């Protein structure tokens, strides 16, 4: 029965091997079908070699599918320290190649890009993993081209991949789209659970408009469209095209976006597309100075304090339940244990 799908969601471990191992331990021992890591395995360039070793070593213990998303720190593109990777291939070989084998038997991947999808036929769910730091010119440096490491960029190849992943969705499946950062400008949703700092946060992007939500909207409503999106910094080469026709398959079931990046547990919706919700999971482990508005306790000496999420998707009722594992206090001392929302009633 395609009733429930249980997912472990974690992000921003920032080199903390102990917490990463406990994430995998939870995956193996608790009632979850799969896990997803939403980016930022590492912290800074000086730790890359060690982090590239520990991450796949941790994943080897996984007994269930575990998907990996590229984060802005993982690209190595930093104005101060420079890039650790000279091209897309090196970025792929550092993070995706060692981890794609753990994504599960239902994974479709071309063996060279940092984006893919995994199907879960029993539950009727497709998880699409995107790479928000992907250059339009595959021959150019993919991580240190013209852009800051936390700015959104897609290749036309990846845009076409996302459209195809939605067009080829098996009948009766629902979709979860994973990316490290938000897909556009976001506004708060369910403020009784989310931080006030959810309000109005915006994805730094070199694309003129939110291309991923535009495509997702077409999928949800079963429409046809063709639109160009400008990338002003690239001049005449700066254009992406979203050309799709979802009329043949009809309306689609979009569950939500999942991400990390903000070091906070946040629920929000895309500003111009209120039927598209996103949950950003808290930082699973990082230095106290990097915590920002995290739900982590202020005392980072408490290594036993985890912070990730157990997400239950009830597809029959169109309901998502998010339960925090580990830290449950927000920056104001309020307890945030669990929240639920109906993903088909947010229009």
Low-confidence stretches: 138-147, 297-301
The description of the largest β-sheet is:
8 strands, mixed
Taken in chain order, the helices and strands follow as EHEHEHHEEEHEEHEEEEEEEE
| Integer tally of domains | 1
Structural class: alpha/beta
Q: Indicate the overall shape.
A: globular
CATH superfamily: Metallo-dependent phosphatases
CATH topology: Purple Acid Phosphatase, chain A, domain 2
User: Distance between the terminal alpha carbons, to the nearest Å?
Assistant: 27 Å
Q: Helical residue percent?
A: 10-25%
Radius of gyration: 19 Å
How much of the polypeptide forms β-strand, as a percent range? 25-35%
Reading off the top of the CATH hierarchy, the class is best stated as Alpha Beta
Mean pLDDT: 82
Tally of contiguous helical segments: 6
How many extended strands? 16
Name given to the CATH architecture:
4-Layer Sandwich
